[in-house]
Amino acid sequence: MGLNGRYGFLSDFSSMSETEARRRIQRLYENFGIQDFQFYDWAYSYSEATQGDHWTDAFLRSRPISRATILAYIDEIHRCGGRAWAYVQAVGAEEHDLDYLKPHAFRLVDRNGRPYVHAARFPCYFANAAWARFMVNRWAPDIMELGFDGIHWDTLGAIAGNYDAEKSGVLEFIQQSAELLPIFGLQQTMNFVSLAWWDPAVVERFLSFPYVEVWSAEEEQRYYEQFHGGPLAGRRAVIAYYPSQDIPDGWDESQTMLVRWRAAENRGLSYLLVGDDLRRLHNEYFPNNRDLQSQEIRALQRSV
User: Fold this and answer.
1) Whole-angstrom distance, CA of residue 267 vs CA of residue 247
2) Count of beta carbons in the 10 Å neighbourhood of residue 39
3) What is the value of pTM for the model shown?
4) Is-contact 96 123, C-beta < 8 A?
5) d(C-alpha 273, C-alpha 282), whole Å
6) What is the pLDDT along the chain (304 residues), one digit of tens a residue?
């Protein structure tokens, strides 16, 4: 449980030599101590993990993905003493109609009373204990076979018109999946976007580590305050606060990300920034990343 080292990302799963794939992991480990890696949007679809040896990404159907690259990444991560986390959209599915699962699964309805479809791409379902059983059974066997260590349940934040029901359902989902995933030898974490549905006791008991995507300085501070006392005191955690988001007046992305990296380091947390072979995040779509400049690498290393 907890973070092994720092937390980074991978979103380039294109065909490459095994040597190059391993070298990318080694560089991230040696330069920044990254040992926990989120494999972002690696699957064939939001209902199916793989498709042969090569496929394209689930969201835009444009990024080439190689099974061999994924396997080389995972093996090298394990050689570095780290863990590989398989990104799965917790409330997403390809099917627009899962009537055969009713009354256990039903469409997520937004504040306007409409069934929610994310970015006109995939329909969303209400997270609860039954949905957790469905999602674990759908995803865990393939994720285990590929050699991942756990699932990163990604989320879209608070959407439902009834927030209290949504929070209760999400916490049920976490607890139910925590009971089932060990059968497959898997751990879990979840993205609490903007601290939606946050419950420190549930996070501490059922997740390997806390993970929150924040969208403002106020949310950033509220998240840091969660580790001053209570069940999460002293726990290491992940914070995602994209460098292009909420940039202070007169700053640029480079200054913003360095300050946020140091703020997380000073509190014992890991700022999600670096991945894909010495590149860094720009916004919430991880493949839209940027090269790290040499002076940025040196500044980040000094904080490490």
Assistant:
1) 21
2) 25
3) 0.97
4) yes
5) 8
6) 688 889 999 999 999 999 999 999 999 999 999 999 999 999 999 999 999 999 999 999 999 999 999 999 999 999 999 999 999 999 999 988 777 666 667 889 999 999 999 999 999 999 999 999 999 999 999 999 999 999 999 999 999 999 999 999 999 999 999 999 999 999 999 999 999 999 999 999 999 999 999 999 999 999 999 999 899 998 999 999 999 999 999 999 999 999 999 999 999 999 999 999 999 999 999 999 999 999 999 999 988 7
Task: Read off φ and ψ for residue 201, nearest 5 degrees.
Answer: -65, -40
**Residue 180 · residue 143 · CB < 8 Å:** no
Between CA 76 and CA 296 the distance in angstroms is: 25
